[in-house]
Amino acid sequence: MLGKLNLVLLFLSFSGTDARIWAWMLNMPHSPPKEGAKALRESTPAAKALSAVCDGDRACGRGFSCDRHFGLCVPLRGEGQYCRRDAQCVRGLSCMFGKCHRSIPNGQEGSRCKADRDCGASMCCARHHGEMVCKKRLVRGESCYVPDGGLAFSINQICPCEEGLLCRENSRQHRRERDFIYQPEWTSWTCQVPKL
């Protein structure tokens, strides 16, 4: 009885998250079943392909790709499943942003690109979550501020303003209080028609 009381007090001292983690850890098997994995490996052709060692997709056969990280053949993945490259997705899907998605025809918004010429009219080639994709150029009034660099700039980029527009700082209003002039901390930049 005293042992159970100590165990209850121990669990109550952890937050809800800690308790879930401990419960999960205590329920995990310490080693794989000895005969179960071997029996599964030898039972079906698909299971045999899963255990096949590979260094390229051709070694795996139809319906499988080589997971180059682990060097094992794995089944092709469907829409919404995690992936690292296009060859891990079933036909008609491509690996974008780490998941298998329906392929977008070249030149359309959201399709892969290497340069602006790969995209349709009024579009540019810019990073979105680290992937180079076709995006629409910014129209009048849209925010066009681009940071000098850093992580936000290297992961996501925006296109420049449409032809005939320039990215300009909006007029600021200064606040005067006694002898100090307060500058706003953040200023907005938008695509505007250039003033002549």
TrEMBL record:
Stored InterPro entries: Dickkopf_N (IPR006796), DKK1-4 (IPR039863)
Pfam families, alphabetized: Dickkopf_N
Residues in the signal sequence: 1-19
Keywords: Developmental protein, Disulfide bond, Secreted, Signal, Wnt signaling pathway
Occurrences of domain Dickkopf N-terminal cysteine-rich (ranges): 54-100
Compartment(s): Secreted
Keyword Oxidoreductase part of the UniProt annotation: no
One of the protein's GO biological processes: negative regulation of canonical Wnt signaling pathway
Transmembrane segments: none
Molecular function terms, GO-annotated: co-receptor binding; receptor antagonist activity
Annotated Gene Ontology cellular component terms: extracellular space
Coiled coil: none
Recorded family membership: Belongs to the dickkopf family.
Protein name: Dickkopf-related protein 3-like
The species this protein was found in: Fundulus heteroclitus (Killifish)
